[in-house]
Structure formats: structure tokens, C-alpha cells
């Protein structure tokens, strides 16, 4: 392979390493050694009383859930009750204009949330920054980004389906970013609504101590309101849109149920909160205030999730949910955030969450809207003011903040300044999502966001090959979305786009057509296979060229070995330099590492990237005149390729967790359809007259499943799918894939 073909790939690999540290070198620039430090690089000035009060009345919250649980419907109600919108638009329906938060045309057509939209609202004397996050697994990066910058979240669950596969994913993401959560059981009007079962699922499936703060009055069609267990009052949502809250005595038939639920709440809190625990042992009844304080403490400490309930579509339960958000979710001073001090060996230092500190903000989302390029920023400390300069930490460039806005879905309000803890948006800033900005007085970087592996790819060819918009659009999409990747296949010279699922890629192809006027022909979707080694393999490789001009000489000695599968999510590749005694001069070691990275780009079996292989360099030889960086890079590249061939390599494929729900009568058909696709059934659960089947199925076998499921269940079945891990393909499948790849190569010759 020519070196000119390798170079762009190295640039890509390095960029990826910046996003999600993947490469580790025993010593050198790619080492990510970090130390915790109690010190802070910020000034120790006391925050003003005004700032403290502002922050006490500010909440940054996200609304997350499994697809279709009703997040957008809930958010729409929040905007309505907080006075941000004058009318409620439903998410679905032929003649609707679309919910306010689902503003992209495509979202409206497909009825799903694709991009999260930020908006802010006021409830009582508290400001809320709300991010509506997509539930579809293909847009998981949006959920990750939202959680990274939020201080608390509302986990919406369906009263019938409860904890679903995507709920578990979202919960895992919330744990990763230490986000406290309130649970909201929505759709209490649905037939089969059962909050007790859902709370039990939160406890068992999410392993999260949970208890209801309310009991429902009526169920399904007759759902009227709730009884608040703390005030022991019935709450009804009256008026045309549930805007009139009416308090009343607990209906007599619910008195015993309310007492039992309150006892359960106290008992659950006693397990996670010392103060309630002591009262419990002393058999004392906690007061309403003691309970509220304990719920807040335990929620913020992420030891407990309070559970509320309602029906967004019937305009019930939203105002009480908002009260709970303010009461139990933390303000930004109650959340610990850290950053890396770049002047001090990447020491981890605490963010000081007040406005009188040097400014530090994180660009967490880019968006090309109708108003131009927008960059969403979470201000972690300090203040961002219109007219001031901000420093882009990665490039060291100074940018002028010419316009500062607060977003309200797709409209905006201009503001002059925003303080610590706020979320705002800037215009015309050149950066990628995940980049840090400061005021230039400190050199810190917020740690990066987790970026998942892509699982599917397809070739993309513009109908008009000369359109400059093709690469412009691809560049922009990549900057907006780190899970959307683009490369040119070295064999076919085709542009290949990769992402998190068919829908994810479809959306970009469609956006290319609508926003950039570029029609494309797409190839058949291909799953993102990987290749890996299964045993250690030694190498001694000499690169030598003597024909005319300057000679080339480099020798590398060492071995490659599989990385422990448990470690691979964090460490997909590793280069270790164990050369002692200077047989390879240290200035050639980075070139050896580059050669290794070149070698990882495509395996020889099916032409997909190689993962999970460590290269250990032990010895070698150099020549005082003929050795060069290029010679060592090529030596390491060929050494890696040769030893990989001898390492009993295997082809890996993405394995998905698939969850199918359908009426019970179709259970047999659902199981049959999954078996046919070589699915491993993990769990089968029956809920009322519904069944939920979970299975692990290779992504390669899932093409066309929605059509099959539709006909197998008379259109009544639904499924969701989430990436689990890459796992070895069956030997016969591997043989077929290799043959197919060889055929493709032969055709090209
Ligand atoms: N019965 C009932 N249906 C509801 C309720 N809330 C929402 N829905 C319906 O559930 C469907 C999904 O609602 P959305 O608000 O789009 O859900 P979402 O979680 O935002 O969906 P994604 O953005 O695609 O993940 C729509 O058809 C809503 O009308 C509710 O309280 N009861």
C-alpha cells in the first residue's frame, strides 16, 4: 500500500483518539496518565449572594427514555404549562403541525425525535434548561451529549411497557455521567397500566431503589389524578388542558392504599438515608419536611429515584412532575464536575460552578439551522458575554462572541451574557462537538464524551460527481455527529459512510438531498465487521531497499497478542514499546506506532478494521545512514500484517440486543422469526396480554426484520435493537465472507 494512501488514515485515527482515547503507548504523546488532585486552577474568590441565589433557582434537566414512551409529549406539556408556548401540538396525526420540540421536518414526518432541541422555561421562580433527547438507539450520541451537560434527568417510562431495552441503555448512560434522576410513569390512561409493576422493574432491572411519591386515582380510561403521599392530598388536573390543579381529600376507597404506599416510601428511604433510617428504627413517623429533604438527598446522591405518574396525552401529572424536578433534582452547585488542567500534566481539577471564576464552557452540540451554524455551549464556570473573546482550547484560536442566544426549540432569544450553569448557543464558531472554550486565563479542558463504535456502513455516490456540496455536507455532518464517520475505501475508491444504524444513515442521506441539493445513490448497507487475532504471534521483520539513491533499512522484533475481551471496550488497540538499549533509536518509535496503526486499518480476511490486538515492540536494528522514519513505519506495518496472518485471526460482527413486543397470541411467531435469524433468546416476559422477547441476534441477520415482524404479527408487533458487542461469526459465515471479499478483489483487478 502506498504511503500517500496511508497518510489521511493516520490523521483520522489520531482525531478519533482525541475523542475517545483508544491508543496507548508506554511512553509518549498518546499516554493518558491522569492524576486526581484536590487543588483547583480557579480563583478562590467567594461567589456573590446574587449568583448563589440565581444558581439555586436554575435546573438543567434532560428528558430521556425508551423510544415512544412520550418524552416529546411530556416536554410539549412542560412548555405549555410554563407559558413558553400558547398551544399544544401533538406529536402524531395527519393534520398536525408537529410538536414544538420535534422541529426538523424529517422528525415531523417520521414522528420521532432525531436531534435534541434545547429550550428553557420558568416554573415558579426557577429557570429550567430542558433538553429533549431522542429515544431511538441510532441517535444515542445525542443522549450521551445531553447527559454530559445536564445536572439531572427525568426518566420517562410507559405504564404498560415499563423498563425496555433503551431504558436500560439510557440508565447506563446516566450512571456514566452521574446524573440523578426522577422517574415518570407516563401513559397511565393506557389499558393495562400498572405502576406497581413498573416500580418493581426499576428496582430489579435498573437495580435502583425506587418508590412512588403518588398513588393513582382511577386507572386506564378512568385515570383522574393522583394522591400525593407527602401532603396526603388528592390532586386533580381540571380545565380544558389540565391547567387547573384542584386539591381534595383522599378518596375514602384509597385511604388504606395511600397508607401502605407511604409506609413503603419510608421503608425504601430508610435503606438509603441515615436520618430516615434512624427514625425508622426508633419507630417514629417522619414529617413531610423530613421526607422531602431525605428524597432530595438520596436522589442527588443517586441512591434513590422518586417515582411520579401521569398521562401526558390527557394533560395529567405534568405540573406535579415539574414541582418534583425543582424539589428533588440538584442545581449545578450540587453536582461535581471536573476538568483537566493542561498546564499541569492533565491533573483532574474541580470546576468551581460560579460566575466570578474564569470562564470555561463545553460545546456539546453543533447544528446547522436556518439561522446558520449554531454551537450549543454549557457554561461550567465564569460568565460568557456578548462582545468578549473566548479561546478554543484545542486550536488556541481566539473567537469573538458576536451573538449569544438562548434556544427555545428552533426559535431563539438574544441575550447579553450568561452565567455559570447556563446553556446557551453561539453563532459562527468553528469547532467540533466536545471542544472546550475558556477566557484564556486558564488552560483547561473538560473531559471528552464517550463515543460508541459504528455498526453499519454503506457506500454513497453523488449523482452529480462535480457537486462541491457533497463533501461540504459530509464535513459538516461529521463535525456535528462523532458517530457519523466517512472514509474512502482504498480498493473501490467509493465514499463509505458509517453510523449507528440504517435509520441514522438514511437521515443523513435525506438531509444531504434536502439541505444540500445533492442526490445520492446508496449501496447495500453493510455491517461493520472487524477482524481480530486469537493467539500470540511473533515477528522479526527487516525492511531493506538498496536500489539506487538513498537506501532504506529498519528491523523490528516483537510480538502481537489479543487484548483481553473485557478490556477491549476501553482499549481496542494498544502499542507497547519495550525496546531497551537503543537498538531502535527513540526518535523512530513513534514511526513504528504509526506503522502499527496503518496496519489496523483493514484486515486481509474481509477488508475491515482490526481491533483487539496489542503490538509489543521488543527489539530491532537501525542503520546510521539508511534508517529513517519512513523505513521504520513500513517495517512495523509489514511486521504487523505478517504476524496478524499467523495469529489465527477471526472475523467479528456486531451482535445486537433485540427486544420484540407483540400481543401474546403471536409469541410463537416472534420466537420463530428470531430463531430463523440465529437469535439467542435471552428472556421472555408476559405482561397482561402482551409478550416481550429479548434476544441477541447478529446485526447482519436483522436486515428486513421490520417487514417480517409486521407480517408475523399482523402489524401489531414492535421491536427495538441496540448494539451489544462485536462477537466472532460462525466458521461457515467467516468462510463465505472471505470468499465474497476475494471475489470482490478479483473483480477489481
Ligand atoms: N395513551 C397515551 N399515549 C401517549 C401518551 N404520551 C404520549 N403518547 C403517545 O405515544 C407516542 C409517542 O410519543 P412521543 O412523545 O413522540 O414519544 P417520544 O418518547 O418523544 O418518542 P421518540 O422521540 O421517537 O423517542 C405518540 O403517539 C403519543 O401520542 C400518554 O400519556 N398516553
UniProtKB/TrEMBL annotation:
Against PROSITE patterns, the record matches this protein to: G_TR_1 (PS00301), G_TR_2 (PS51722)
Q: Which organism is it from?
A: Coemansia erecta
Q: Which InterPro entries match?
A: EFG_II, EFG_III, EFG_III/V, EFG_IV, EFG_V, EFG_V-like, EFTu-like_2, G_TR_CS
As recorded in UniProt, coiled-coil segments are: none
Explain the purpose of this protein: Catalyzes the GTP-dependent ribosomal translocation step during translation elongation. During this step, the ribosome changes from the pre-translocational (PRE) to the post-translocational (POST) state as the newly formed A-site-bound peptidyl-tRNA and P-site-bound deacylated tRNA move to the P and E sites, respectively. Catalyzes the coordinated movement of the two tRNA molecules, the mRNA and conformational changes in the ribosome.
| One family name in Pfam for this protein | GTP_EFTU
Q: Which residues form the Tr-type G domain?
A: 56-333
**Can you tell me which family this protein belongs to?**
Belongs to the TRAFAC class translation factor GTPase superfamily. Classic translation factor GTPase family. EF-G/EF-2 subfamily. Belongs to the GTP-binding elongation factor family. EF-G/EF-2 subfamily.
The lineage is: Eukaryota, Fungi, Fungi incertae sedis, Zoopagomycota, Kickxellomycotina
Q: Where in the cell is it found?
A: Mitochondrion
Gene name, per UniProt, is: MEF1
Carries keyword Mitochondrion? yes
Q: Name one GO biological process term.
A: mitochondrial translational elongation
The UniProt entry lists the main location of this chain as mitochondrion
Protein name, per record: Elongation factor G, mitochondrial
Q: Which GO terms describe its cellular component?
A: mitochondrion
Q: Which SUPFAM superfamilies match?
A: EF-G C-terminal domain-like, P-loop containing nucleoside triphosphate hydrolases, Ribosomal protein S5 domain 2-like, Translation proteins
Q: What positions does the entry give for GTP binding?
A: 65-72, 132-136, 186-189
List the Gene Ontology MF annotations in alphabetical order: GTP binding; GTPase activity; translation elongation factor activity
Q: Which UniProt keywords apply?
A: Elongation factor, GTP-binding, Mitochondrion, Nucleotide-binding, Protein biosynthesis
Q: SMART domains, alphabetically?
A: EFG_C (SM00838), EFG_IV (SM00889)
* Annotated metabolic or biological route of this protein: Protein biosynthesis; polypeptide chain elongation
Amino acid at each position: 500500500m502506498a504511503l500517500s494512501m496511508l497518510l489521511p488514515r493516520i490523521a483520522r485515527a489520531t482525531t478519533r483518539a482525541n475523542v475517545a482515547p483508544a491508543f496507548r503507548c508506554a511512553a509518549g504523546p498518546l499516554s493518558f496518565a491522569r492524576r486526581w488532585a484536590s487543588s483547583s486552577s480557579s480563583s478562590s474568590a467567594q461567589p456573590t449572594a446574587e449568583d448563589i441565589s440565581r444558581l439555586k433557582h436554575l435546573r438543567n434537566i434532560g428528558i430521556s427514555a425508551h423510544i415512544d414512551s412520550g418524552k416529546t409529549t411530556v416536554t410539549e406539556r412542560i412548555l405549555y404549562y410554563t407559558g413558553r408556548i400558547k398551544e399544544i401540538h401533538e406529536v402524531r396525526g395527519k393534520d398536525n403541525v408537529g410538536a414544538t420540540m420535534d422541529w426538523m421536518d424529517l422528525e415531523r414526518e417520521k414522528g420521532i425525535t432525531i436531534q435534541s432541541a434545547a429550550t428553557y422555561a420558568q416554573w415558579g421562580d426557577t429557570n429550567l434548561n430542558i433538553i429533549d433527547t431522542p429515544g431511538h438507539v441510532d441517535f444515542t450520541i445525542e443522549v450521551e451529549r445531553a447527559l454530559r451537560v445536564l445536572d439531572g434527568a427525568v426518566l420517562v417510562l410507559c405504564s404498560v411497557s415499563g423498563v425496555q431495552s433503551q431504558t436500560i441503555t439510557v440508565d447506563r448512560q446516566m450512571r456514566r455521567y452521574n446524573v440523578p434522576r426522577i422517574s415518570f410513569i407516563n401513559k397511565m390512561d393506557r389499558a393495562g397500566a400498572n405502576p406497581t409493576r413498573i416500580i418493581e422493574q426499576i428496582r430489579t432491572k435498573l437495580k435502583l431503589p425506587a418508590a412512588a411519591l403518588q398513588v393513582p386515582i382511577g386507572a386506564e380510561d378512568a385515570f383522574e389524578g393522583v394522591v400525593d403521599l407527602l401532603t396526603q392530598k388528592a390532586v386533580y388536573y381540571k380545565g380544558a388542558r389540565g391547567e387547573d390543579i384542584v386539591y381534595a381529600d383522599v378518596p375514602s376507597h384509597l385511604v388504606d392504599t395511600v397508607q401502605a404506599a407511604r409506609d413503603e416510601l419510608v421503608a425504601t428511604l430508610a435503606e438509603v438515608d441515615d436520618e430516615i433510617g434512624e427514625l425508622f428504627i426508633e419507630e417514629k413517623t417522619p414529617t413531610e419536611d423530613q421526607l422531602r429533604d431525605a428524597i432530595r438527598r438520596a436522589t442527588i446522591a443517586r441512591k434513590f429515584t422518586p417515582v411520579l405518574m401521569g398521562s401526558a396525552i390527557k394533560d395529567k401529572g405534568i405540573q406535579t412532575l415539574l414541582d418534583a424536578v425543582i424539589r428533588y433534582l440538584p442545581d449545578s452547585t450540587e453536582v461535581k464536575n471536573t476538568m483537566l488542567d493542561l498546564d499541569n500534566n492533565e491533573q483532574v481539577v474541580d470546576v468551581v460552578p460560579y460566575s466570578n471564576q474564569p470562564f470555561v464552557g463545553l460545546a456539546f452540540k453543533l447544528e446547522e439551522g436556518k439561522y446558520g451554524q449554531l454551537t450549543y455551549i454549557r457554561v461550567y464556570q465564569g460568565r460568557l458575554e456578548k462582545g468578549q473573546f473566548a479561546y478554543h482550547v484545542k486550536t488556541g484560536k481566539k473567537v469573538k462572541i458576536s451573538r449569544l442566544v438562548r434556544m427555545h426549540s428552533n426559535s431563539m432569544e438574544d441575550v447579553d451574557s450568561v452565567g455559570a450553569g447556563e446553556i446557551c448557543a453561539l453563532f459562527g464558531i468553528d469547532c467540533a462537538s466536545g471542544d472546550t472554550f475558556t477566557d484564556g486565563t486558564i488552560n483547561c479542558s473538560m473531559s471528552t464524551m464517550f463515543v460508541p463504535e459504528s455498526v453499519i456502513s454503506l457506500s454513497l455516490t453523488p449523482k452529480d460527481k462535480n457537486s462541491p456540496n457533497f463533501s461540504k455536507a459530509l464535513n459538516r455532518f461529521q463535525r456535528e455527529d462523532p458517530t457519523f464517520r466517512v472514509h474512502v475505501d482504498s480498493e473501490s475508491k467509493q465514499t463509505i459512510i458509517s453510523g449507528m444504524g440504517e435509520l441514522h444513515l438514511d437521515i443523513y442521506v435525506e438531509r444531504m438531498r434536502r439541505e444540500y441539493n445533492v442526490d445520492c445513490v446508496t449501496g447495500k448497507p453493510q455491517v461493520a465487521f472487524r477482524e481480530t487475532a486469537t493467539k500470540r504471534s511473533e515477528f522479526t521483520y527487516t525492511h531493506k531497499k538498496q536500489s539506487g539513491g538513498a537506501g532504506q533499512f529498519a528491523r523490528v522484533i516483537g510480538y502481537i497478542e489479543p487484548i483481553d475481551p473485557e478490556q477491549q471496550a476501553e482499549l481496542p488497540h494498544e502499542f507497547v514499546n519495550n525496546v531497551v538499549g537503543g537498538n531502535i533509536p527513540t526518535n523512530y518509535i513513534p514511526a513504528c506506532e504509526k506503522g502499527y496503526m496503518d496496519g489496523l486499518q483493514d484486515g486481509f480476511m474481509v477488508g475491515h478494521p482490526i481491533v483487539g490486538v496489542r503490538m509489543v515492540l521488543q527489539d530491532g536494528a537501525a542503520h546510521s545512514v539508511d534508517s529513517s522514519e519512513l523505513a521504520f513505519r513500513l517495517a512495523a506495518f509489514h511486521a504487523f500484517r505478517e504476524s496478524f496472518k499467523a495469529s489465527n485471526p477471526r472475523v467479528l460482527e456486531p451482535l445486537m440486543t433485540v427486544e420484540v413486543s407483540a400481543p401474546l397470541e403471536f409469541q410463537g411467531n416472534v420466537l420463530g422469526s428470531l430463531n430463523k435469524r440465529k437469535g439467542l433468546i435471552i428472556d421472555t416476559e408476559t405482561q397482561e396480554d402482551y409478550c416481550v422477547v429479548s434476544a441477541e441476534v447478529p446485526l447482519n441477520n436483522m436486515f428486513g426484520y421490520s417487514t417480517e415482524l409486521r407480517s408475523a404479527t399482523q402489524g401489531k408487533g414492535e421491536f427495538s435493537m441496540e448494539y451489544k458487542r462485536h462477537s466472532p461469526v460462525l466458521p461457515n459465515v467467516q468462510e463465505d465472507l472471505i470468499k465474497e471479499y476475494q471475489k470482490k478483489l478479483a473483480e477489481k483487478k
